[in-house]
């Protein structure tokens, strides 16, 4: 049985659950991280030296970094529709997965943390982070405009990886005008039964 170590409220755990639900793979999720206060234990650090969630345990191997877990599962189970083998088609998927970590993650994490506080108590960097979040979401919206899904006409790992995070971004208390196409994509992917099970 595959084990997913990570709390259900983590967006990075939710990506992994979303894929497992889409692929209908049996798994068990175990509570790790934040309030469970167990990711700095030697046993957990032995599996994932970052002390972050998620970690996937598949028999003898522990896999960490959520996007790596997505690719591992898709490769292992031959999910070529979700993760095409053609290099050009694959690059359309991977660019948005990499962009998520390299470009969106910074302003996403900054706003996510501060948005829990009352408006008057937020960090001085709030406005700059909100501006950067909008700029990055504009790049995603323009780069995928007119497409059914992020990588083209098919639903892929790009949609699975980005959905839990972009879903949150679009609901932040930040002015985000002109993202109707991205919101339509968000509604489409978050209405999938697998997403509802993973993150609903
Ligand atoms: N790049 C890593 C990020 C992992 C990460 O930052 N996870 C967060 C939750 S989304 C975490 O572990 N936070 C601390 C905690 O929950 O204890 C990945 O994609 O797996």
Number of domains: 2
CATH topology of the largest domain: Glutathione S-transferase Yfyf (Class Pi), Chain A, domain 2
Structural class call reads: alpha+beta
Number of helices: 8
Ligand kinds = glutathione
Strand content: 5-15%
What is the highest CATH level, the class of the largest domain? Answer: Mainly Alpha
Strand elements, count: 4
Indicate the mean pLDDT: 98
SSE succession: EHEHEEHHHHHH
* Gross morphology: globular
CATH architecture of the largest domain: Up-down Bundle
Please mark out the parts with pLDDT under 50 across 5 or more consecutive residues, or reply none: none
Largest sheet: 4 strands, mixed
Distance between the termini: 23 Å
Oligomer: single chain
Helix content: 40-55%
What is Rg? 17 Å
Q: Within the largest sheet, what's the order of strands?
A: 2-1-3-4
Overall description:
The chain is α+β, with helices and mostly antiparallel strands. It has 2 domains: 2-76, Glutaredoxin (3-Layer(aba) Sandwich), CATH 3.40.30.10; 87-199, Glutathione S-transferase Yfyf (Class Pi), Chain A, domain 2, CATH 1.20.1050. It is 54% helix and 8% strand. It is built from 8 helices and 4 strands. Strands 2-1-3-4 form a 4-stranded mixed β-sheet, with helices on one face. β1, α1 and β2 (27-30) form a beta-alpha-beta unit. α4 runs antiparallel to α5. The chain starts with a strand and ends with a helix. The structure holds glutathione (GSH). Glutathione is lined by residues 10-12, 33-34, 39, 52-54, 65-66.
């Amino acid at each position: 049985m595959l084990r997913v170590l990570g709390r259900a409220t983590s967006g990075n755990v939710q990506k992994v659950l979303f894929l497992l639900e889409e692929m209908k793979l049996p798994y068990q999720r175990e509570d790790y991280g934040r309030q469970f206060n167990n990711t700095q234990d030697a046993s957990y650090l032995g599996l994932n030296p970052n002390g972050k969630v998620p970690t996937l345990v598949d028999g003898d191997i522990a896999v960490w970094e959520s996007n790596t877990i997505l690719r591992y599962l898709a490769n292992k189970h031959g999910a070529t529709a979700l993760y095409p083998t053609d290099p050009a088609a694959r690059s359309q998927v991977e660019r948005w997965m990499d962009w998520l970590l390299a470009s969106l993650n910074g302003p996403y994490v900054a706003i996510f943390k501060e948005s829990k506080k009352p408006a008057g108590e937020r960090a001085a960097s709030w406005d700059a982070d909100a501006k950067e979040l909008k700029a990055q979401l504009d790049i995603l919206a323009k780069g995928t405009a007119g497409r059914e899904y992020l990588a083209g006409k098919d639903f892929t790992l790009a949609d699975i990886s980005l959905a839990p995070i972009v879903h949150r971004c679009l609901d932040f208390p930040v002015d985000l005008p002109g993202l109707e196409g991205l919101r339509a994509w968000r509604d489409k992917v978050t209405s999938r039964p697998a997403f509802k099970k993973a993150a609903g």
